């Protein structure tokens, strides 16, 4: 029964030796792992021409310049909320998927699973499949064993270092960073990034492996709380499989499980799914892949191990109580007692999908309407207002004009809300009703601005500084006040 007290795998097992297996879940895992690894390692090498003076890496989280370079867009540090929105949408999607299908994130896409599989593949390449690896570990130390183990750890280290380098390439232009690493001219933080990720990869993927998923990962415990009777997880059809073992002539009736233990041997966490739901099961489906050919060989229906909901398991128990089978070794195959999966909309699925879609649509709208020009104005405080010889009053301001495009821009500044206001740019010695300021591409320029107007009663008056891009016509407003001397 899923969600009962959750036994974890036999603690006497110091290490899992997963056996290779073929099947649809295996193929899905391989395809997803290849996609994730391909994106991670090759992503930084994709190029995107932004013109001279700008990085040509398609996706670059440029910590030096404080920019997130994306194809066709540049994110500034104050736009980090786009990333936050994306993470929130991903978290809701993960909660929704976990509520519907248990730990499929763990079994198919979690980096711990993906990288652990790579390490196990390297191990299998050098030491053989499960039985050969177990035999080698139990054998006394010889030069040949030492050589194999050393070669394995060397390949593991290379994989860990390549992973650390690829991680760094997302933050520093990949060809530049690769050259810096190869010529040992990389800076301290680049080395730190590479070594920290390489050490974590080697430790978690090579040495800790499935123990991280079983004993350390908090997600295993958190996601258990999200499941209910409708959550579909990999389960063993005990009503059909038990009593397990090979049927003998004249012996008692037996279930469909012949106790070949293939499902346990292929399990990457060493779990025996036949013992019921376990927190050590990452829902990868490999045990189902292992069992299906056994059933086919016996001429029995597949699905003895399959994705099923606890509600179905309850139905199985009820069916088992009602039914009596006259099993003999020659009896026809016992039919599956699982209730067929009901195609119905799950509230959790609908709510999660609606929330994720809503957030993504909102983010897409906010992203599409991002301004390419932003402005902030700060009134100078000492003094706030200066009386001029002609009887007028002058206030000083600091304007921060940010040109978020990859081309230089000219901005036209006008003052609104204060009658007779005249603008002056002291740096350029320009005066007039409007001022023009050139701002370089992808940069912020601070402009000192004087606003002069006739004095009058009334204290402070709202001052609206209007900045218009002369090229595109885009307008940004800065709200501030104009201070008078007569109160
Ligand atoms: S693979 Fe299938 S038949 Fe073999 S032990 Fe597991 S459940 Fe039983
Ligand atoms: S019990 Fe089956 S689904 Fe669970 S981790 Fe092991 S192989 Fe994967």
The CATH topology of the domain at 373-483? Immunoglobulin-like
Average pLDDT rating: 89
User: Uncertain spans, ≥5 residues at pLDDT below 50?
Assistant: 1-8, 324-333
What is the C-alpha radius of gyration, as a whole number of Å? 33 Å
Give a quick precis of the structure.
With 487 residues, this protein is of the alpha+beta class. The chain has helices at residues 24-42, 81-101, 104-109, 111-127, 130-138, 143-169, 174-182, 188-208, 210-216, 218-224, 238-241, 262-265, 286-298, 310-322, 347-368, and strands at residues 60-62, 67-70, 73-75, 232-236, 305-309, 373-379, 385-387, 392-403, 409-416, 422-425, 430-432, 434-439, 443-454, 460-469, 475-483. It starts with 23 loop residues before the first helix and ends with a strand.
Give a verbal description of the structure.
By secondary structure, this protein is α+β, with helices and mostly antiparallel strands. It has a domain at 373-483: Immunoglobulins (Immunoglobulin-like, Sandwich), CATH 2.60.40.10. The chain is built from 15 helices and 15 strands. It has helices at 24-42, 81-101, 104-109, 111-127, 130-138, 143-169, 174-182, 188-208, 210-216, 218-224, 238-241, 262-265, 286-298, 310-322, 347-368, and strands spanning 60-62, 67-70, 73-75, 232-236, 305-309, 373-379, 385-387, 392-403, 409-416, 422-425, 430-432, 434-439, 443-454, 460-469, 475-483. The strands form four sheets. Strands 6, 7, 8, 10, 11 and 13 form a six-stranded antiparallel sheet that branches. A four-stranded antiparallel sheet has the order 12-9-14-15, with no helix packed on it. Strands 1-2-3 form a three-stranded antiparallel sheet, with no helix packed on it. A hairpin with a 5-residue loop joins strand 14 and strand 15 (475-483). Helix 4 packs across helix 8. It binds iron/sulfur cluster (2 copies). One iron/sulfur cluster binds at residues 241, 244, 257-263, 274, 290-291, 294, 304-305.
